[in-house]
Every structure is written in C-alpha cells, then in structure tokens.
Design brief:
By secondary structure, this protein is α+β, with helices and mostly antiparallel strands. It is built from ten helices and seven strands. Helix content is about 40%, strand content about 15%. Bound molecules: iron/sulfur cluster. The site of iron/sulfur cluster has 14 residues, from α7.
C-alpha cells in the first residue's frame, strides 16, 4: 500500500484491510471484486491484484506461510527487489541493501551522485552503494537509521547539514541540487465521456477495461449534443483527465454492462472519480 502512497493516507486502509482479510489464506480465498472493493480509493490497482495473486501463490506453493528466503520472496507476484529485501531486512534482520525514496536521497548526497537516480545507471549505483554500506549485524537498525536520516535530517528541501551525524563523510557540494531525476513526461489532457442512466432505483454501470480492470464505472458514450450534467477532473499517470457525464436513455445493457440497485453501490468496487460523480449526481 505504501508504494507511491503516503503513510497518512494508507493507515485507515491498512487497518480496514486487516480486519477484512486477517490472514494470507482469507485473502487468497476471496474474490477479486472484494479485493478491489477494499482497495478502492487508494489507486494503482495493480498492487491490489498482485497482493491477491501473491496470497494465492503463497497458499498453493508455500503452505500458506510467507517464505523467509529473499530469492523466493522475489518470485512472488508484485514483490520486486525492494519489497523482497525490505521484508527480509525488517522482518528477518537479514543483511541486504535497500533503496527507497529516503535512502536514495541520502546515498545520492553522501556520494555526490550526479546521474539521475531514476536512470538505469543511477539506480544500479545506489544499490551497489547500499550493499557496500549495510553491516552484517543489525542491518535492520542500519536501514531504519538510513530512512530516518532521509526523513528527518537529509530532507528533500533544506537538508539540516549542521546537525547531520554523517556530515564528515558527506561528499555533496550542493546537497539541495541532489538527487537528480530524469525529466518528467509532459501532462497530456484527456476528455472522457460517460452516461448516466437510471431506471426503477437502479443505475447502469459497465465493467472497466484496462485502467481499472475488474471495477465498475458509468458507461462510455459517444460525443452527445447536449451539455454535460457533471464534470470532474482527476490525474492519471501523465494525463489530466476531464470526466464529463451526460444524461443517457435507459437501454438494454450490453454484455459488459449491468443495472445495479442504487442502495447497493457501496458494495461494489467503483474507481474514485466515478464514485465521486455518482455520489454528486445521486444526492
Ligand atoms: S551532510 Fe547534509 S547532505 Fe550530507 S547527508 Fe547530511 S544532511 Fe544530507
């Protein structure tokens, strides 16, 4: 949950998630729709699908217990080098490198790395340095300290070099200019048109394709001549999406569409922009 998302946002989701799926087996046994419903609002839904697949794989291949070998951890869906090492370091106190946002900033400044840290060569350099620095014993304390150093002292803006405990090792000449990153892709505007059909206390929804696969949204419509009854905007990767909703006639649903009683909408997974829109229009 913490990948790409701040801890303050994650905490209520995390607590609800553990109440709903208290064990790996209970997560493995649930449906994808339930998983997406519990995740809705957090975004980056591939993480939820991977977690679900991961739980199933652990039950099928590892008897329902998380393996304690970093190589096996890395073979699980959704677990890459960072997550595998983080589990092995923090849960098992193994001596392994970790590179995440805070440690990447600290390392890039300590060693004055000028390559963009999101480039292949920059990333490789950071992992090499982290592997060189991590001690054989108390790796957990070391990695915690690196993260705390980045979060509290070697901050993105105004690093507090005067009180930094590793100042005498630091090679950064201009800390505030580090780390460097590749230029971001330009934001591309996108307009999406959807229809609102209501009949006998039910609303027509369609199953989402790629972006929110497995969730339900207002059906797409061709460009109508009327004015939209609702407009909202939301970011998606490098897009700025304008979602316009038009009144639409009730028609026979297509194979990927279904009528849902309005009172049951809170039971199904709906992506946040569409849920906000439905809440506003059905109020
Ligand atoms: S001396 Fe400054 S730039 Fe270097 S690690 Fe400490 S806080 Fe970061």
């Amino acid at each position: 949950m913490l990948q790409q998302t701040q801890a303050a946002t994650v905490v209520p989701y995390y607590n609800r998630w553990l109440r709903r799926f208290p064990t790996i087996r209970s997560l493995a046994a649930t449906t994808e729709s339930d998983v997406l419903h519990a995740w809705q609002g957090l975004g980056y839904y591939a993480r939820a699908r991977n977690l679900h697949r991961c739980a199933k794989t652990i039950v099928e291949n590892f008897g329902g217990r998380l393996p304690n070998d970093p190589g096996k951890l890395k073979s699980l869906p959704g677990i890459g080098l960072y997550t595998a090492n983080a589990i092995a370091v923090f849960a098992l106190d193994k001596s392994l490198p970790i590179v995440e946002a805070n440690t990447a900033r600290v390392l890039s400044r300590l060693f004055n790395i000028r390559a963009p840290i999101d480039s292949t060569s920059g990333r490789r350099k950071l992992w090499e340095l982290s592997a060189k620095l991590v001690p054989q014993k108390s790796a957990r304390d070391f990695q915690n300290a690196m993260m705390d150093l980045g979060a509290l002292i070697c901050t993105a803006r105004n690093p507090r070099c005067q009180i930094c405990p590793v100042k005498k090792f630091c090679r950064a000449r201009d800390p505030a200019s580090l780390p460097r990153k590749k230029r971001r892709a330009a934001i591309v505007p996108l307009t999406e048109l959807h229809g609102l059909s209501i009949m006998a206390g039910a609303v027509l929804l369609e199953r989402c394709g790629q972006r929110w696969r497995g969730m339900w949204m207002l059906p797409k419509v061709p460009a109508p001549r009327s004015a939209p009854i609702h407009t909202t905007r939301f970011p998606f990767t490098h897009h700025r999406v304008t979602l316009q909703v038009f009144r639409s006639k009730a028609a026979r649903p297509a194979s990927h569409q279904r009528w849902f009683p309005i009172r049951r909408l809170n039971k199904i997974p709906i992506p946040s922009p569409h849920r906000r829109t439905l809440t506003a229009l059905l109020a």
